[in-house]
Structure formats: C-alpha cells, structure tokens
Amino acid sequence: MVVDAGESTGAGRPPVTGTPMAAEGFAFSVEARDGAARAGRLTTPHGVVETPCFMPVGTKATVKAVQPRELRGLGAQIVLGNTYHLFFRPGTEIISAHGGLHGFMGWDGPILTDSGGFQVFSLETTRLLRDDGVEFSSVYDGSRHVFTPEVAMRVQEDLGGDVVMAFDQCAPGTLPGPELEAAVERTTRWAAACKEAHSRRDQLLVGIVQGGVDETLRRRSAAEITGVGFDAYAIGGLSVGERGEEMLATVALMDELLPSDRLRYFMGIGDPIGIVDVIARGVDVFDCVLPTRMARTGTALLRGGGRLNLRNARFAADLTPLEADCDCYTCRTFTRAYLRHLVTQKEILGAQLLSLHNLRVLLRLTRDARSAIRAGRFAEFVGHVAGRGSAGG
Amino acid sequence: MVVDAGESTGAGRPPVTGTPMAAEGFAFSVEARDGAARAGRLTTPHGVVETPCFMPVGTKATVKAVQPRELRGLGAQIVLGNTYHLFFRPGTEIISAHGGLHGFMGWDGPILTDSGGFQVFSLETTRLLRDDGVEFSSVYDGSRHVFTPEVAMRVQEDLGGDVVMAFDQCAPGTLPGPELEAAVERTTRWAAACKEAHSRRDQLLVGIVQGGVDETLRRRSAAEITGVGFDAYAIGGLSVGERGEEMLATVALMDELLPSDRLRYFMGIGDPIGIVDVIARGVDVFDCVLPTRMARTGTALLRGGGRLNLRNARFAADLTPLEADCDCYTCRTFTRAYLRHLVTQKEILGAQLLSLHNLRVLLRLTRDARSAIRAGRFAEFVGHVAGRGSAGG
After folding, report:
1. b/e B220-259 (16+ beta carbons within 10 angstroms → b)
2. Chain A contact set for B342 (CB, 8 A)
3. Mind telling me how many Å the CA of A35 is from chain B's nearest CA?
4. ipTM, 2 decimals?
5. What is the C-alpha separation between A45 and A5, in angstroms, rounded?
6. Is the peptide bond prior to A15 cis by the omega test (within 30 degrees of 0)?
7. pLDDT tens digits, residue range A371-393?
C-alpha cells in the first residue's frame, strides 16, 4: 500500500531517517539486509516506496487494462510512464496542463519516467546516432526528432514524474566490443549533461550504468557514472538478449560496484524467478511490461514462474481458480473455465482480470520478499518460490 | 444497490408484500404511481430489484469491460445474459457445472436470460421458420440447430437465471401485415408451449407480447398472452426500426392492456430520453447494449441524451470531466483530454472508463426516476432531463 509522505512521520511511525538526497522531499535508507538482498524505503513527494518493489508499467499514461484505484488495491507503490510515447501522444503540453502525469492519469502515488532512450534505440532503425544525442523518426507519424540529454530532461521535467532517468544508450551485451565501449562513453557523457541540465529540485534523477555483460566495461561505466554522482543508480543494458548466468553475474558485480546506501533499479525484469534472482543480488526496484502484456494474450503468470495459456482446451471445464492461494479479485471470484471463455471470446474483461492477477502475483511476491529479508529468511523464501516450479500449460 | 433477499425482511424493513407469484421466492408490487409511471419492487431469490430499473447487458456472461464488483458500485440491480450466445459459447454444460450463470460470471445478484429468439431472427438469414420453432445456422461455426419453446426453456433452466423469457418471434412493425399477424399467432402458440415446458419453480417466466405497431394485432397479442397467463410481461417487437411516436403510442396502449399489478419489461431501450419516455408509459424494466457498445467506440453518453464523441479533436485539451455533476469514478478522476488520449490510442482503459460512466448515467437516471415517482414529481423530472438537451459533439 502506498503510504503518504505526510503519514510516514505520523503517529507510531519513526521519522524518515534515510540518506538525505539532493532532491527535495526524497530520502532512501536500507533498513534490513539478508545476504546481498536489501529491504529499504524510498520517500518521495508522492509517498513512500517500500523496496524491493515491482513497478507496473503505464506506457502511455495507463497501466493497460487496469484502473489507478485498482493499482492501489493490488499493492502497487509506484508506476512507470514512457517518455517517448507521452512526448508524441498526447504531448507534454497537454500533460503539463494537468499539472503533470499524476493529474493526467489519475494516479497520485509516485511515478517514474524513463528517458525515452530505450524506445529511440529499439523502436526503429532509421536513427542517426550523434555525439549530442539521437536523431530518429517517430513511430506515430514518421516525423524526424532529436533526443539529447537536454531534451530528455526537459520532457521529463514537463511530465513531472517523481523519479526521472538520465538519457543513456541501452547497449545489449550482444553488441561488438567497440560499439559497446562507445555506448559506455556516450552514456557517461550524456549522464553528465543530464545532471547539468536537470533543474527540478522535486525530482530524483537516476544515473544509468551500461556495459553489457563485459566486466571491464561495467567497471568502467560504474566508476564513471558514480563519478558524475547520482542519488540512485539504474542497471541498464541487461534483459536484452544476453544469457541468464551472464546477466546475474553482472548484477552481482553491480552490487559490488554501486554505493551500498543508494537505491538500485534494474530496468526490465518481470518473471518471478528473475525478480527473486536480482533481489538476491542487491536490486531494490524493477519494472516490466510482462504481466500486463501476457494478460492481453490470455496468459496467466504463476507465483513460481509458471504460466497458464488459457487458450488451451484443457481449461475449458476447469472449475479451479488460477491459483488457489492467490488473494486477487480474479482468483477469489472466477474459475479458469470462465477466464478461458473470456479469452477465447476476446472479451475485454479477460484482459482486465488477467492483468489484475498477473500484477498481484508480482506485487505479492515482492511484498513477501520484503518480509523475508526483514525476517532474515530470504534464502528460505527463494527456495519456496523456486520450489513451486514453473509448471504451466 | 442490490439488497439480498434475505435482508429485505430484516431489521427495520417491511416484509415483502407484493403480489405473490407462481415462482418461488418471487413477488412484485407497485408501490407508487405518478401518472402512468410506476415505482415498484421485484423480489427474486438473488435479491430485490427496485423499479424502474435499467438492466445492463452481459451478452456472453460479461457486461463488456466491466467487472461484477463494479456493477454493484454503479447501482446495477440485475444483469441480462444472452441465451443464444451462451448456448454456443461456452455451452450450458460448463455453465451448469458452475451452478449456473451466477457462479460462472461471478455475479450473485438477479439475472435475466433472454430466450435466444432475438438472435435467431436477427443474426443470420438462412433460418427456416417452422411451426414448432426455428432452424438456423450458428454464427460461431455454421452448424444447424433448431430452437423451439421446449429448447429455449431447457437451455434457460440450465443457465439458471432468475428471470427467463418465453420464446417468441420478434416481428418489427415494418413487416407486412400478414407476416406480422403470423408472428403474433406463432408467439402465442409458443408462449403456451413455454409455459407448459418450463418446470423450474425458482425462475420467473415472462410472457412476451408482439404485434409491431399495429393496434389490432397488439390488442390481440396482449389478450392472447395474458390469456396464457404469466406473472410478468414483456413488450417485444419495438425499438426495431419503427417511428418513435408509433413506438410510444404502442407502449401507452400496452399500459392500458397489461394487468396493472404485473411487472412490465420493455426489451431494448437505452437512451436517456427513450428510457424516460417508456417509464412515463408504465414500463418497469428495460435493457440495452447502447451504453457499453458506445463506450467501446469512444462515445460518452450524457444524462440529457447527448453524446460526446471523444475522437473529436476539440476534446484534446479539455480539462473538464465528461459531466461535472456525475458521481462515477471516471468523472471524479479523469478529464475529457485524458479519455480522448485513451480512446485515440486504443487503450483498453478507455473502454473501461467510458463503460463505467455510460452505465452510471442510466443507472443514476433510473434511480432518480424512482425517487421522482415516489415523490409525485415525475413530470418535473422528465422536464429536467429533457431540458438538459442533447448537445454533444
């Protein structure tokens, strides 16, 4: 549940004692550790985020098929918006007129906006990489635009999220070495430019470390980005095609290299096992479109990492809920047979109910991870989650 | 709000004193009249329905894009399911295994199922009209089927709705006289067969009067159907292409011909002015797909009958809610600009939020109609609704 910043110093609660940040109204503290896993608390002007925390993705100012009031009920604490999409549709002018994204999308809890970089680099191929930024064509109408660190900062200031991201070049570990190195250099240069350009005191600016799965480049990027100096750091360039063990080794390396008292954000992980794996390596916050995207294709996510494809005929007369021990509205109310009926009949309600369940799986998982870390039982928790197996259908 | 049948005789509430019905657990009473308009109370095994009442349509066991828990919050008292669609997808066997539609769709309030006749007559053209029923091809897979009064009763008994409909031939007033007359004859014969075939004592069977907008045929059909004898009557064959004044004159005629102590159901009306018009002529219950269908095409319904097409560019920067005095979640939370953004970006949330609003408009309108009738101010209420005009865009 989101706790208002105002409430966090209220009756019975300790005052916020986290490491003070340059951004006004922000603080972060690691309150418990269990191995490398951490349980912490990020205070923002729009409320407190207990970590580890899964962040639902609200690409175009909506977590697809889910209402903001439902997000609260599911236990969501912070939502992500995509700068690229919002820049083009509806544009920052309209969002600013609403006092920013919070007012526009009806979510008064914390919001994080990405820098737009990921979409610029992944959505189209006619981009022109320049020293000062990227020239590219809009996927909406083909018009040409240039995103620079300065543009990314200005747009995110206009969007008005609580947490904003430095403009970086997301370079997958599968890139050739020289390209990966150039991306690291560019990311450092841009990070410094972002820090220089960013002026809103009520926003937390996050630096992003790149370097793929190359240890030397990761060390270099981490040194350079922490050298520029941010109050929180993101691990970029992972979950983009590299092998799983390389990814995890890189996260473990980041745990060693990043300052231990700063928030760490892993960009783009949404399967239960992967989430538990990165929490175990010191990550505090993560996001992914997986739960809502899978919901729209009729797939239910299970706590142990399994998946149920509800188009499968074997669910046609299955009178059990998606998961017997899930506390979401979908599992408390509907059978797999009903959900399969909705999915095969392309009923909107199917996407809604599966989105609620899939998000709840990850939000409950991370809530339980927080408790386990605080209780010093995280290893046991990991075993329990993994032990549920990934059986699906 | 739906009141549990159990609660209706609870502390502080008068016992149910309506006209007893043949069906067990049912009663209906007209509690107030204002001109021809009536405010009444239908008791069913799944709760009480205060009339006049708008009934959201849950075609395939879902009111499209709306969750059952939301229907309650909107003030829905009873939901309609379509026998034709449910017969084919998912089939009665799966629904029966859930204990009927209530368990299948997660709605524990009253449910009405139609007879399937409307779809059989409207969805395809290869049908073969027989004396005992209709042979037709499924829109799902082209397979041939015969619906008879006996089949319609058996299927509706399996679906397990509270209120079930006689199998009739929906004959629009635009049909040539001899065909309209044949439809009236067939509807009477089938009504008697339905009454004979229907055996579930915990379901209320409704007889349907046909006759288009022909006064002679309406009088004949009303006499014949009331002669067969039902505890509730539906006005069929209207809202299917006839002129508005003919429709209203026919409803007024039905008010004269139907027993005044029995429930009256007008099949298929969903615009605010039309609803007020039929309430003024003695109708108690009505349904329509209009509010949810319009929502899915990006159109908002207004209380005075107007409509807002949110694709219209004039809403792009409109910071006002759909209706300033609407109490729905959508109007309390979001601007027209945000809703237009969702609609133009084809976001599922757009259909959800517009469905909530459109349903609330009609459910609040009918709630207010009930109050107005009880207060003896219905004419004033009609003037107020009509006075809001139908301005939209």
Report:
1. bbbebbbebebbbbbbbbbbbebeeeebbbbbbbbbebbe
2. 62
3. 41
4. 0.94
5. 6
6. no
7. 999 999 999 999 999 888 655 44
